[in-house]
Design a protein that fits this description.
Helix Hairpins; 5 helices; 69% helix; globular; binds magnesium ion
């Protein structure tokens, strides 16, 4: 549940830490500029697959490696930051828009269901 207080705090404190992360993380990007957007998009898809594979092992092996899953989520975050950089979008803007979209859906009782424009 995202409360009005959550949104006010988010707006007050800002989401600059996302940009701090983005700036630091993309400092390690080594792919060529002609591969911008496509390289991090494919990397994100691959890392999301790694998350799914770790989660799959819950079914196959009955194991749950929380740290390994969290590590793969970090890899996803890196690719998201790089993709944002390549698209000239601040990670904080993406996070802010997503949080407010979810809050709006929650307020309108539209959290459930499907469709991008609920
Ligand atoms: Mg990985």
């Amino acid at each position: 549940m995202i409360s009005e207080v959550d949104i006010e705090a988010w707006d007050f404190y800002g989401s600059g830490q996302f940009n701090d992360y983005q700036n630091a993380a993309v400092g390690t990007a080594i792919y060529k500029s002609e591969h911008s957007v496509i390289y991090p998009a494919l990397g994100l898809a691959a890392e999301a697959g790694e998350v799914a594979n770790k989660v799959k092992k819950i079914i196959r092996d009955g194991t749950f490696d929380r740290d390994a899953i969290a590590d793969e989520l970090g890899d996803c975050l890196w690719y998201i930051a790089a993709l944002c950089r390549d698209l000239n979008v601040d990670l904080s803007v993406v996070a802010d828009a997503n949080l407010k979209k979810l809050h709006d859906r929650q307020q309108r009782g539209k959290i459930k269901g499907s469709g991008d424009k609920r």
